[in-house]
Amino acid sequence: MLDWxxxxxxxxxxxxxxxxxPNIITWRPxxxxxxxxxxxxxxxxxxxxxxxxxxxxALQKALDTDKRQRLxxxxxxxxxxxxxxxxxxxxxxxxxxxxxxxxxxxxxxxAAGRSTHFHLITPASE
Length: 126
Hints:
By secondary structure, the protein is mainly α. It folds into two domains: 4-81, no CATH class; 93-126, no CATH class. The strands form two sheets. The protein has a two-stranded antiparallel sheet. A two-stranded antiparallel ribbon has the order 3-4. The chain has helices at 4-12, 30-37, 50-61, 65-81, and strands at residues 19-20, 28-29, 102-105, 121-123. Helix 3 (50-61) packs antiparallel against helix 4. The chain is elongated and about 60 Å long.
């Protein structure tokens, strides 16, 4: 998992080439996000287009990392240029913990923090 501050900064500069933001839960690797949220056979059908189907099929077969990058980028560019996502608001989360039980937890950010990264929890000292 990438550090949230680095991800958000890269996203704002349109310089994020490893991940995409399909929903409020978490960033996902590009090929996984395309498969789940942009592919006709995916779990969510937010935006579909024949170009994405054709390019994603080529992405699945490609082994060369540079070619994979170009294919994923072309899908990302198509989504960006066609306003496939228009974030209307940003969710801020708050986490509460009993200090008698939890000594520290490095919160991973986003809504994913509600169900992940439990390995970062340290118990309270007795």
